[in-house]
Design brief:
The chain is an alpha+beta fold and 84 residues long. It has helices at residues 54-75, 78-81, and strands spanning 11-13, 18-19, 26-27, 32-34, 36-40, 46-50. A two-stranded antiparallel ribbon has the order 1-4. Strands 2-3 form a two-stranded antiparallel ribbon. The protein has a two-stranded antiparallel sheet with strand order 5-6.
Length: 84
Amino acid sequence: MSERDWRLKLQATVTENTVLPWSGSEIKKGDQLNLVSLVSLPRGRTLTIPVPDMTALYLSASASSWKNYWAIRTENRIDSRLKK
């Protein structure tokens, strides 16, 4: 995930080179951090799932529904059938 994704709950950019004390991993200036959920899988594997921002997902679904609504309304000429 190299670009910012508006659907994610939390994203941050590192402002200076840092070494994580718990793992010794080095994070370089400009690297992107994302809030994720970790799921343990069999055979010692781990699945990383980005945590979504529910408000953004609901707004996206609402905008998509509104767009579909207007497409159906236009396609079926609902407005032209209304009496003025």
